[in-house]
Amino acid sequence: MPEKEKFIKSDLARIDALRDEDIDYSDIPALDESFLEKPLVHLPKTKSTVTIRLDRDVLEWFKSQGKGYQTRINALLRAYMEAHAKA
Question: What is the three-state SS of the chain?
């Protein structure tokens, strides 16, 4: 086992052994109801399922880039759309 991995595992064991009352939260501001007024998570827009005809080599290239190829295609189409949107 590499030295770094041993260090991480021993550190995780130490953290797991901590009790809640032993954790110092003094540097974290208290949260109140206003915290929930502006969520930090931005949910993605709803997407539509479509059928699109792509050249085989284009599709294979995107797939060869790994998981998330449809998201990357969408991002490129969005960038093109935004670059050509009428102001």
Answer: CCHHHHHHHHHHHHHHCCCHHHCCCCCCCCCCHHHHHCCCCCCCCCCCCCCCCCCHHHHHHHHHCCCCHHHHHHHHHHHHHHHHCCC
